Amino acid sequence: MRRMDLKSAYDREDDGDKLITGRASPRPKDAATLMLVRRDGPQPRVLMGKRSGRHAFMPEKYVFPGGRVDRLDGRAKALSELDQLCELKLRKSSRRLPRALALTAVRETFEETGLIVGSPAELEGPYPPGWEGFYNQGVAPCLKGMMFFGRAVTPPYRPRRFDARFFYGFAEDLLIDERAPVDGAELSDLQWVTLDDAMALDLPSVTRFMLGEMAERLDPTRADRDPAFLRWTRSGHSLERL
């Protein structure tokens, strides 16, 4: 798989968004996304979908399920929590509670694909706003098996900015069953694709970079690679390891 250099990970021309001119840069909003990986075929496959053309941010690009953190996501009840190392890495990178970021990725995956990261359970409400549909399936989230592998902050020259945390996990460990993903208003053309086929899609550059990171983690000798942190500094684009 072809890797990309750091500069192209923040290519100004690749997401269809307009650049800021003559005004202050907005503060990035916390966001979380989940790369689901299937290992039941000759090659690992990941779930990707096409963003609606109505989106102002990255329209018609292929991405992983995910979205903005809601204020009360961290209050959602779960049957299992993140493992200690994953939580420690997230605490280094965020003022948000680690579980709030992971729960956002679970909620957004359900809303955008219909897939459930969780197990059967009957938990009493009230539920945080936005979680009613999830819990009404007779399930509860499970965070064990979700791994933090990347963070990227949208550069300051963008009118919409996100501080996104990237999680990954194996479908056989995370998903409640083998149901097919369902297209919706947020994502369409949902499909499980090999990493090489994913690289051939119309991707945001940061998504392309994270696919390369994922390819390295699927190598058993590099599975414990530290999470990547992409951001803009006064000296230009920066890549650190958390």
Helix content: 10-25%
* Known CATH architecture: Alpha-Beta Complex
Total beta strands? 11
Overall tally of structural domains: 1
The CA-CA distance between the termini, in Å, is: 24 Å
By CATH, the topology is: Nucleoside Triphosphate Pyrophosphohydrolase
**H/E topology pattern:** EEEEHHEHEEEHEHHEE
| Count of alpha and pi helical runs | 6
The coarse overall form would be globular
Radius of gyration, in Å, reads 17 Å
Mind summarizing the main beta sheet? 9 strands, mixed
Q: Structural class per helix/strand content?
A: alpha+beta
What is the CATH level 1 assignment?
Answer: Alpha Beta
| Fourth-tier CATH superfamily name | Nucleoside Triphosphate Pyrophosphohydrolase
Low-confidence stretches: 10-16
- The averaged pLDDT comes out at 86
Strand residues, percent? 25-35%
Assembly level: single chain
How would you characterize this protein structure?
By secondary structure, this protein is of the alpha+beta class. It has a single domain (7-241), classed as Nucleoside Triphosphate Pyrophosphohydrolase (Alpha-Beta Complex). Helix content is 21%, strand content 26%. It is built from 6 helices and 11 strands. Strands 1, 2, 3, 4, 7, 8, 9, 10 and 11 form a 9-stranded mixed sheet that branches. A two-stranded antiparallel ribbon has the order 5-6. A hairpin with a 6-residue loop joins strand 1 and strand 2 (45-51).
Question: What attributes characterize this protein structure?
Answer:
Nucleoside Triphosphate Pyrophosphohydrolase, two-stranded antiparallel ribbon
